[in-house]
Amino acid sequence: MIQIDDAIVALDIIEENFICDLSACLGECCVEGESGAPLEREEVELLEKVLPLVWDDLSPAAQEVIEKQGVAYKDTDGEMVTSIVNGKDCVFTYYDDKGICKCAIEKAHREGKTDFYKPISCHLYPIRLEKYKTFTAVNYHRWRVCKAAVLLGNKEGLKIYQFLKTPLIRKFGEAWYNELCIAVEEYKKMKEKGEI
């Protein structure tokens, strides 16, 4: 593991390759799972604020769920997550003309309607953050639906931390990311010398 400030970064984030391949997975990570996307406290309010901007892109079933229970709920672990439809689909999803599941919030952001990109847990995926009393664990969540992303990452040779540069900077800041890159180079040198 590598520690940068109060974040403990798992080594597989700097060693494993990954590039999302939406043409292969069709956005399945926004559909499958036991609950919605994890949310930070202030993100529930941001979702409510952006809701009118994305409402027309949401399915009637998603609109019905939001009208009944809101944009988020507490899952079985007591964590706030995005509301879901049919026991799995995030309410903020829509399907493009190729059948790829995409985020309506990200679409609104790309169209210049909001400066909120999407929940940070979605932007960081496959990285998952786990907060402890004195540190935050930065882990790689391995999931069968991302097999194509691993294959594409291996083909292109792009590490997880490189692929997720923008969301890592969004979460931790540019200085933090630069420190991570320095630590990665030191780690590589030590590994080449057989010191670790």
Automatic annotation (TrEMBL):
<protein>
    <recommendedName>
        <fullName>DUF3109 family protein</fullName>
    </recommendedName>
</protein>
<dbReference type="InterPro" id="IPR021458">
    <property type="entry name" value="Rv0495c"/>
</dbReference>
<comment type="similarity">
    <text>Belongs to the Rv0495c family.</text>
</comment>
<dbReference type="Pfam" id="PF11307">
    <property type="entry name" value="DUF3109"/>
</dbReference>
